[in-house]
Amino acid sequence: MKGTVNYELRGDIAVLEVDNPPVNPLSSGVRVGLCDQFDKANSDENVRGIVLKGAGNAFIAGADISEFGQKMEGPDLHTALKNIEYSEKPVVAAINGPALGGGLETALCCNYRIATEKSIVGLPEVNLGLLPGAGGTQRLPRIVGPSQALKIMLSGVPVPAKKALDQGILDGISTGDLVEDAISFLHKKLDETTEHPKVRDLNEKLVEARGNENVMAEAKALASKSRKGQFAPGQIIKCVEAAIEEDDFDAGMKKESDLFLECLLHPQREAMIHIFFGERTAGKILDVPKDTETQKIGSAGVVGSGTMGGGIAMNFANAGIPVIVLDQDEKNLERGIGVIEKNYQMMVDRGRLSQEMKDGVMSLITPSLNYEDLADCDIVVEAVYENLDLKQEIFKKLDDVVKGDAILASNTSGLDIDAISSVTERPDKVVGTHFFSPANIMRLLEIVRGEKTSKETLATIMKLGKIIKKAAVMSLNAPGFIGNRMLFGYTQQANMLLLEGALPNQVDTALESFGMNMGPFRMMDLVGLDLGWRARKLAKLETPLTNKIADALCEQERFGQKNGKGFYNYSDGSRAPNPAPENEEIYVKVAEENGFTRRDISDEEIVDRCILGLVNEGAKILEEGVAQRSSDMDIVYINGYGFPIWRGGPMFYANSIGLDKVLEKINKFAEKDEDFWKPADLLVALANDGGKFADAPTDDLKKEKLAFKQEVKY
Is 105 one of the annotated active-site residues of the chain? Predict the structure, then answer.
């Protein structure tokens, strides 16, 4: 059995310590220990009260997810928690770090809760496709009110200690020795009263909410907006509704238990737990040992003060790392710093940041016009526009100016990292850091490994990714890396569907109904149709078939959201797409000119072609070793491209419907377009063997790493 609970007597108070490193999940051994040690404390006549704490730097991080689906050992969690809730001696939870999920549910079974200033509490189960299943949906509404409880559970975002105190979750915050403060608090309560509150008996806030239809309406609106397509949020709302309407706590618990089981058996749960573990696995680079020495990143520089540069600088400042933002144009620099300040002020206005905190992060950002100011930086990220010559010029300057052991990183979405590193004397210190826009919001960070990038550099950047709170995934240096290479197949099929007879709104609606945050034509309008068009004209390149409609729109000065007309029309100041029937004549004309007879196309075909285009290209990426594992690609697409988390990413989705069925559909599409739809060798092998992408070998079926060939795909 994993974990234990230690017992210590401090005078007349028993201190019980959950010991299951590193974060003290409620594993079988912990549950046994809670039952045994609470019995011991309650049977000791000399014990007047109990303090429950966690070992190390965590209270209890939640249930042990690794036990899901396994045979139960020892008592279940509900039995262990009843021992706490019905303790004959009053109990104080001494929350010495994260108290999340089952951890907060455990604390809510205690009579009182004291925490350190840096502690956090929360019920994040919704992020795993689950609901709080150990009384959280019934106890939390009783202590903070149903409306606030629903916000906490539906967001899944932890609550910091001070805010938790204001909400009533905590009874106090310790600024000294937590256990001693908890003991003092308990002694005071023991001297004041013999009646110690149980959260299950606090019904006042539920009665107040009874008959208030706004509570449920607001929760449903929040779930619809922030948890589109997800199953668990609706079940959480039903549980809280039962808490409000039922006069019997145990009846509410029965409802919670029934709906928890529904979530547990729902396919979304498996998909979301796949992503949970996938993000943690992504940080492990197969040939980089865990104990690889890393560099300390105590200061940073960013070259370029535009949208990307400013966003990247905010990431460093948010993590408490001083950052110098360099631009050689004074007006651009002033504008860029102004945008950063505006972004932070917006957070202040929305209550997400205090003025003091804003002043603190802004003080960490220093504008500069001189490369020499970057000399002592531990890392410098270049964030100028995608031009290889320009980037090489910048890296030459950085190599001359910045200290020899500093890391030089390029925020490129597709340029050759080896070509960039070749102009330096430190190719081992050069790495690609592909941030996604807006960089201060988007979680994905593609880390691009050059041929000479050292293991120490990679380990440092992966660690830095965690510090700046990114979902970091490593890619080898190959055209498009992982994300944009897969994206090409997706948008190629969307454009082909437009030629063949579909309309932008139909394609976007079908894919958004599938769960994508934004359809491909809305995305193209957002990015700007003119970017590729102008680049092709400048380079005197012929327009590819898949871009002929977009280029025809550009010839009519339809560039997208930037000028209010692209595939859609946009009202002044609005990003909401409106139909553009005037474009249909262009679609028909371009289709006829290129030999297409337009036809009716089903939503099913739209989804299959676009999504399986991603999957087949992903299989090739895995086969070549550009990505380490299939789950890495799932992390990329969920965090960078708006793929629905509840489907587990494109590769997991393919596994879920069966690779044999995927291959069958691809072979059918290949009858009309053999070149595009040639199935990946890896896909064929796995489909024929009844395997999944996670079964892909790390070496045997992988091709030699491709020599970098610069490809321009607009």
Answer: yes
